[in-house]
Amino acid sequence: MPFIENIRLAFRAIRVNKLRSFLTMLGIIIGISSVITITTIGNSLQKTIASTMNELAGNNLMYGMVQPYYPESDEEWDAWEMPELTENDALTYDKLIAYKKAFADRVKAVFVERDMGTAVYETKAGKSNVSLKGASAGFTDIYKVKMIAGRSISDEDNEKKAPVCVVSDLFVKYAMGLEENPIGKKVVFPTGEYGSVTAYIIGVYHYEAKVFNDVSSNKSIPEKNIQTVVALPFTYVWDLMGFDETDGIDFFNIVAGEQADAVAVKNETVAYFDKMYYADNENFHFECQDMASQMGIINNVLLVLTLAVSVIAGISLIVGGVGVMNIMLISVMERTREIGVRKALGAKNSHIRAQFLVESIILCLLGGVIGIAIGLFNGVILSNVASSLVSMYAADVAGYLVVTVRPSIPAILISVGFSVATGIAFGYYPANRAAKLEPIDALRYE
User: Fold this and answer.
1) Where are the beta strands (DSSP E) in 257-358?
2) Structural contact between residues 405 and 379, judged by C-beta atoms closer than 8 angstroms
3) Is residue 34 a contact partner of residue 382, using CB atoms and an 8 Å limit?
4) pTM of the entire structure?
5) Which of 33, 66, 326, 336 might form a disulfide with 375, Cβ 3.0–4.6 angstroms?
6) Bridge-partner residues for 191, per DSSP?
7) What is the C-alpha to C-alpha distance for residues 35 and 312, in angstroms, rounded to an integer?
8) pLDDT of 337-391, one tens digit each?
């Protein structure tokens, strides 16, 4: 019998028993849709995290810091005391400048900042809430802000400890009310603990809440009350705070060049600092962490969890397969006389076997396609619902989340293949049983 004829007969049998066919497919539908839903959510979560991290800093961002040698055993921990960070141990601004020059061909920016506190800048034109930060060159590279007037903080500003600053467009709009160019204008920030901080505006950046992870950007807060960053030269802020060049820097940011290998830069950075400053140091060493490695760890954890839950959900496919076998056995019994007639007319065992096997495969394949469609729909809906809930109840996170809904193509292909395999595995026995019926016995069956 031609294969096309088997397909036609299979669909006719399914149409005749619509409800029974649907209930038979239900186990397959539930199993496949569960797997697709889970893999879609897991894959979307991976892509969302990757897109968000890339939006904020890209895969070229690293963190450098000096760390003590921590004990490796419980006994050592009991007797261990944190070593004191000496002047020679500390990461100083001069060391960072030397590193930046040594790696100029493969490092785009070396950035360090220091929080100085908050202030309210007030004039006759209005007022603005600000956060004062000492910053090195690289402010725009780290925060990914766009300068709309003037320039950002430079190495020369830090070298001279220049009293200059970079402010946001919101600051200019609500605190200065200037229609003219604000570049060069003198501003004085009352900080309380450190007295008044005087600076001259050298640049204006466009404020975006997501790049600063700004909780104050919640929609319920008026725009004029949003606290924005005022960046001043790092060395100037250190002077005002009473620090000097020998004081240590907790950690600094590194942005590798676009064409540079971030992993290679990381390893070379560690080797550079260890050789230059920590080769013979028994208490401290230099560490460097990169976003790409951390993302790899997160993705691996998500992948394992997604696979584990998918396998659990896939167990329902076995239940669905048993249901298919049960229905096909009933179908063989109901159509025994039909089988006898076909055999009496010359149908071979292989023809009968193929007829019922094709019917089983089509039942599972239809269930698989419906399950995939439901799973994709569920995955998209749940991902968007999660995004909406984050926007409603965690506005500080929603500001910089880049939600990406991405179905897993391999999971879809595997699901289709699994549906066909289920039809073959659980349909073969009923089909083979039908093929082995003797024509005389089949014709006499009531």
Assistant:
1) 284-290
2) yes
3) no
4) 0.61
5) 33
6) none
7) 9
8) 777 777 777 778 787 788 878 888 888 888 888 888 888 888 778 777 766 766 6
